[in-house]
Amino acid sequence: MRYEGNIYSPHLAGDDYILQCTIGCSHNQCIFCYMYKDKQYRLRELNEILKDIELAKEYYGDVKKVFLADGDALSMPAENLITILDCLYDTFPSLTYVGTYASAVSILNKTLAELIELQKHGLVEAHLGVESGDEEVLRAIRKGVSRGEMVQAGRKIKQAGINLFVTVILGLAGKGAKAWEHAKNTALICNEIQPDYIGILTIIVQPGTELYEKTQSGAFEVPEEMEILAELRVMIRDMELKHSGITSIHPSNCIYLENIMPEGKDELLRTLTTIIDSKDVSKLRPRETERV
User: Fold this and answer.
1) Average pLDDT, the chain
2) Residues 202 and 254: beta-carbon distance below 8 Å
3) What is the pLDDT of residues 150-192, one digit of tens each?
4) Distance in angstroms between the alpha carbons of the first and the last residue of the chain
5) Which of 2, 20, 112, 263, CA to CA, is 20 to 30 A from 240?
6) What is the distance between the alpha carbons of residues 34 and 31, in angstroms, rounded to a whole number?
7) DSSP-derived 3-state class of residue 35
8) Cα dist. 16→19, 98, 247 in Å?
9) Of 89, 113, 102, 141, residue with least CA distance to 21
10) Report field, pTM of the whole predicted structure over 0.70
11) Structural domains in the chain?
């Protein structure tokens, strides 16, 4: 297939056909993110994308799931996205899922009517990088939106009938008291948004990022594994979710957990407390700290 540069998709979307609609990320300023630093953001030409769909049919045959890349495919004009969605469903008769990364800014720049039309044409899920519910942390990582804007964006996707998958990042506030504020406020923002699914990641510090420079200078300290687990326990403890899946199945994490909230909350807390109290690192998995 025709791809420009490295291609990323959510870990759970690893078996999807990935269709590159944009190059890079429309924001690309987050101090921890290494994913699109080698790319200049731009929209791909619509005819190129439609040609890729035609080629994918020849290469893959019929597919059931498609994920729109790169970092913010929702930044495309709504009419282009509708054309792409229609082409995908016409080309792949077995297609049941189309997902995309979506920045808060791109969500807010779309009208509710446009988002509803995207849902009607088959956009099933949007992946929103919330990262933190703490205003100070969002500013520090240069996320580019406020806490309130993040809540507004998440709720808008839900209102349009599109499934919302949010990601949050453990360790993003470093060590110390701020870590607990990050955990508590991230739980609270999830409570306000009520996403369909929450993906939990752990911070990976990569050379070439501003966060790496901060670790080298001592301005940022990466928490130890048990501190990460304690942060996760606080986050889950303070979550009040009506019906949300939660998963930490991602290579960046030292523990794989998955459950449905609120039914699985007590089980998740028991598992974390057992490991934290025993300090039994044998129950942890080695984190993959390379690019994942």
Assistant:
1) 93
2) yes
3) 999 999 999 999 999 999 999 999 999 999 999 999 999 999 9
4) 21
5) 112
6) 8
7) coil
8) 9, 9, 19
9) 102
10) yes
11) 11-283 (3.20.20.70)
